[in-house]
Recover the amino acids of this structure.
C-alpha cells in the first residue's frame, strides 16, 4: 500500500516544497529575513488513504495543507495533483480543479459565515461549480446533509443555532457537497469534546470508505492521528523529519524527536508508568532556526556533526524515511 | 415554573420579561444577603466532616438566572479533596466542572450566577470556613494565598500591557504588605527559577507576548504558587499546549505540589492526563457527579455508562479499533432538565428503573461511588434530594 513503486495510484505528490514568509524591516520595508514555514518537504499520498501530519504548533503543518491546495503560493518545489502541477495552472484551470480538493477547518465557530443560512453555506459552491443540474440541486443538498448527520430542515437555520459538533458536520458537508477527491482536514476535532470527537472521526472514516476519499489529516493529537491514518509524517520546524506507514512509524520510531513525541502521549491507564523522555526547552523560532539539524538544540542524542551539517531525508527501510544523522551509512542500527 | 415555549424552543418576549423580573427578585435578595456588613464569624465557620480533607463540597447548587430560564450549572455536587492529593474532575464542556471550581473561589459571575444551597467547607489557616457563606472581605485574603488558580489560556489570563515580573510581584506584595520592593522582586525571581525559567532576570522584564505558550503557562504557575497555597485549582492547564510542552508542565506541577505539600484540583477533559496525575477522579455530567473514586477504581472498573462511554470514545495509541465508540445523542439542554437520570436518553444500558427518580448514590467500595441503577445490587448508601 505504501510501496513507492510503479502502478501505485498516487493522488498527491509533493516534491521539495518550500514556503518562506518574508520578514520586512529596515528602511523602505524590504525583506530582511524569511520565516521558513515549510522547508524542503517531499511526500506522496495514495488515493483512498489518509496521511497524518503531526508536530508542535508553529512547525508548518497548516502551511503545508494550504500550499497543497494552492490557497497560498509556494516559494519553490512542485505539488502534483493527479499528475498535474497545481502551481503551474492558470486561473480558469485551477477553478475547474477546485471542487476536487477541499478543506475542513479547525474552528467550527469561525469558519462558517454567521450571516448565511446553512443551506447556502453548503450549497453556494455547488451552484457556482454546476456540480449537479439545477433540478437536482435540492435533492443533492438533502442527500449530502443526511450523509453528514444533518436534517433537511437545518437548511434554513444559521450557524449560531448549532453546537460545535454539528457545526463541524456542516463544515464537512460543505466540503463533501462538491464531490471532492482530496480533503485537507486541518485539526478538525481539536476544538471538540471527547465524545463528539469520536462521532466526527467515525464520520470521516465512513465517508472515506464510501466515496474513496483521500485525506491529509493535520493534528497535534497523536492518538487521533494513529487511529485514522495510513501513513504518518512528523514535522519539526518546517522539516519533515520522519515519514512512513503507520505501522513502521509507530512501532519503530527512528527520529529522536518522534521517539520523544510518542513518549509524551498521556495514556488513560493508571497502571502504565511512562518511560517519558522530556524534551528540554521549547521549539526555536522559525525565523532564526539553529544551524545544522534543526532539532539538535533539544535532542538527547545530539552529536558534533548534527550542529554543523543538516541531515537529508533517507529511506532507511522500504517506505520509511528519516532525516537524521544517526542512521547514516549503515541503515538500521 | 411553567414555561410556554413554541416548538422550536424559543420563548416569547412577554415570557422573557416575566422571567427577568423574577430573576431580579431572587438574585436581589441573595445579593443583599451577601453584601451585609459585619457578618458574625459564627455564620461562616463550620466543622470538617473529615479533618484529613482540605475541601469538602457538600450538595453544592450553583444556578445561573438567565432571561430564558434558570440554568442549573451545578446541581447537587458532593466530593472531597484530601490533603496533599490530586483530584481530577472530568466531563464535557458545559457539565459544570469549571463552575464548581469558580464557586470554590467565589468567582462565579454575579449577580446572575449564585450559590443557592449547599456548602463548600475549606480548612484554611483561620479555621474551617464555609465558602458559600464567607463574606467577600475574608475571601479576598484567601484567594491567591490559600487557594489559587491556574487558567486554561495563558495568553488571555496574563495582562498584555504589564511586564511579567510586575504581575507576579503584585500577587506577592498584595499579601505581604511588610515586604520591601527588593524583597518582593527577589521572591519573584526565585519563583520564576523554581518553575524552570532559565533566564529569570530577563523574563522578569519581558511582556507576555514575548514568551511562548509553555513559558507563559510557567509564569502563571509561578504566580499561582508564589504564596505556597494549600490548594491549587488547575483549570485545563495544558489544553492549549503541545504534547511535549504538556509533559514538561505536568511534570513541573507535580514536583512543585510535592515540594510545598499542597492539594491539586485538576479540571480537564483529557483522560490521559487524569490517569497520570490524579489520585482521585470525579466524573461530572450535566451539573452532577455521576461517578467518583480512586483513579484505579474509575479506570479499571468504570461503572457509570457515561464513564464507560467516555473511556471508549478516546483512541488509544497501540490499541487498534476499527470504529471508535461514540455516545449517541448530545448533552441535554441545561434549562429544562428531566427529573429522571440525566443520562438516560443517551444511555444504551438503561433499565426500566431509570424512568423513575434521579438515581441515588450507590457505594461500590469505601471510595467508589456511582449514581446509576445498574449498581443497585451494591449497598444503597444515601438518597439525595428530589
Amino acid at each position: 500500500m505504501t510501496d513507492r513503486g510503479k502502478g501505485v495510484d498516487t493522488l498527491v505528490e509533493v516534491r521539495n516544497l518550500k514556503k518562506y514568509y518574508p520578514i520586512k524591516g529596515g528602511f523602505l520595508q524590504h525583506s530582511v529575513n524569511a520565516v521558513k514555514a515549510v522547508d524542503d518537504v517531499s511526500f506522496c499520498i495514495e488515493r483512498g488513504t489518509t496521511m497524518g501530519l503531526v508536530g508542535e504548533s508553529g512547525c508548518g503543518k497548516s502551511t503545508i495543507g494550504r500550499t497543497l491546495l494552492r490557497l497560498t503560493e509556494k516559494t519553490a518545489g512542485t505539488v502534483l495533483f493527479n499528475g498535474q502541477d497545481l502551481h503551474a495552472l492558470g486561473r480558469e484551470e485551477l477553478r475547474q480543479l477546485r471542487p476536487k480538493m477541499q478543506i475542513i477547518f479547525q474552528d467550527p465557530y469561525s469558519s462558517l459565515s454567521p450571516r448565511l443560512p446553512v443551506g447556502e453555506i453548503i450549497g453556494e459552491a455547488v451552484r457556482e461549480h454546476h456540480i449537479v443540474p439545477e433540478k437536482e440541486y435540492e435533492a443533492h443538498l438533502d442527500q449530502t446533509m443526511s450523509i453528514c448527520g444533518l436534517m433537511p430542515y437545518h437548511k434554513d437555520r444559521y450557524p449560531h443555532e448549532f453546537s460545535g459538533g454539528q457545526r463541524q458536520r456542516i463544515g464537512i458537508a460543505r466540503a463533501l457537497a462538491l464531490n471532492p477527491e482530496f480533503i485537507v482536514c486541518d485539526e478538525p476535532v481539536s476544538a471538540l469534546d471527547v465524545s463528539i470527537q469520536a462521532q466526527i472521526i467515525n464520520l470521516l472514516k465512513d465517508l472515506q470508505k464510501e466515496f474513496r476519499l483521500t485525506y491529509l489529516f493535520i493534528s497535534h493529537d497523536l492518538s487521533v492521528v494513529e487511529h485514522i491514518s495510513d501513513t504518518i509524517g512528523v514535522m519539526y520546524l518546517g522539516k519533515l523529519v520522519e515519514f512512513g506507514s503507520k505501522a513502521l512509524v509507530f512501532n519503530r520510531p527512528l527520529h529522536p524527536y518522534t521517539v520523544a513525541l510518542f513518549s509524551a502521549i498521556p495514556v488513560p491507564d493508571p497502571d502504565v508508568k511512562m518511560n517519558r523522555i522530556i524534551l528540554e526547552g521549547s521549539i526555536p523560532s522559525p525565523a532564526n532556526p539553529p544551524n545544522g539539524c534543526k532539532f539538535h538544540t533539544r535532542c538527547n542524542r545530539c552529536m558534533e556533526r548534527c550542529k554543523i551539517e543538516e541531515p537529508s531525508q533517507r529511506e532507511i527501510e522500504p517506505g520509511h524515511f528519516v532525516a537524521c544523522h544517526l542512521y547514516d551509512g549503515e541503515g538500521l542500527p | 415554573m411553567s414555561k410556554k415555549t413554541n416548538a422550536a424552543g424559543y420563548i416569547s418576549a412577554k415570557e422573557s420579561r416575566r422571567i427577568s423580573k423574577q430573576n431580579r427578585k431572587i438574585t436581589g435578595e441573595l445579593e443583599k444577603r451577601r453584601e451585609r456588613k459585619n457578618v458574625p464569624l459564627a455564620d461562616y465557620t463550620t466543622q470538617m466532616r473529615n479533618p484529613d480533607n482540605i475541601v469538602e463540597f457538600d450538595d453544592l447548587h450553583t444556578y445561573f438566572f438567565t432571561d430564558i430560564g434558570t440554568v442549573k450549572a451545578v446541581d447537587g455536587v458532593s466530593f472531597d479533596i484530601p490533603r496533599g492529593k490530586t483530584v481530577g474532575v472530568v466531563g464535557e464542556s458545559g457539565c459544570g466542572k469549571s463552575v464548581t471550581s469558580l464557586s470554590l473561589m467565589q468567582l462565579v459571575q454575579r449577580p446572575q450566577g449564585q450559590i443557592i444551597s449547599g456548602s463548600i467547607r475549606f480548612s484554611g489557616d483561620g479555621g474551617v470556613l464555609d465558602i458559600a457563606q464567607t463574606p467577600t472581605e475574608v475571601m479576598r485574603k484567601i484567594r491567591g494565598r490559600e487557594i489559587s488558580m491556574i487558567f486554561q489560556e495563558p495568553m488571555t489570563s496574563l495582562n498584555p500591557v504589564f511586564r511579567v515580573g510586575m504581575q507576579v510581584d503584585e500577587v506577592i506584595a498584595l499579601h505581604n504588605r511588610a515586604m520591601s520592593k527588593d524583597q518582593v522582586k527577589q521572591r519573584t525571581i526565585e519563583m520564576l527559577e523554581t518553575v524552570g525559567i532559565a533566564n529569570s532576570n530577563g523574563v522578569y522584564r519581558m511582556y507576555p507576548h514575548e514568551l511562548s505558550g509553555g513559558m507563559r503557562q510557567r509564569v502563571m504557575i509561578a504566580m499561582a504558587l508564589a504564596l505556597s497555597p494549600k490548594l491549587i485549582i488547575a483549570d485545563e492547564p495544558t489544553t492549549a499546549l503541545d504534547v511535549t510542552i504538556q509533559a514538561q508542565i505536568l511534570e513541573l506541577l507535580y514536583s512543585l505540589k510535592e515540594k510545598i505539600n499542597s492539594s491539586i484540583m485538576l479540571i480537564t477533559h483529557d483522560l490521559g492526563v487524569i490517569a497520570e496525575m490524579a489520585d482521585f477522579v470525579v466524573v461530572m455530567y450535566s451539573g452532577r457527579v455521576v461517578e467518583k473514586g480512586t483513579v484505579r477504581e474509575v479506570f479499571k472498573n468504570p461503572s457509570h455508562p457515561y464513564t464507560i462511554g467516555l473511556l471508549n470514545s478516546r483512541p488509544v495509541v497501540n490499541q487498534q479499533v476499527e470504529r471508535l465508540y461514540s455516545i449517541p445523542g448530545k448533552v441535554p439542554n441545561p434549562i429544562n432538565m428531566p427529573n429522571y437520570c440525566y443520562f438516560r436518553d443517551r444511555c444504551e444500558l438503561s433499565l426500566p428503573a431509570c424512568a423513575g427518580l434521579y438515581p441515588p448514590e450507590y457505594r461500590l467500595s469505601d471510595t467508589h461511588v456511582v449514581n446509576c441503577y445498574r449498581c443497585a445490587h451494591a449497598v444503597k448508601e444515601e438518597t439525595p434530594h428530589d
Remarks:
- Residues 8 and 333 of chain B are 13 Å apart (CA to CA).
- The interface with chain A takes residues 92-93, 212-215, 242-248, 250-251, 269-276, 295-296, 299-300, 309-311, 313-318, 321, 323-327, 330 of chain B (CB under 8 Å).
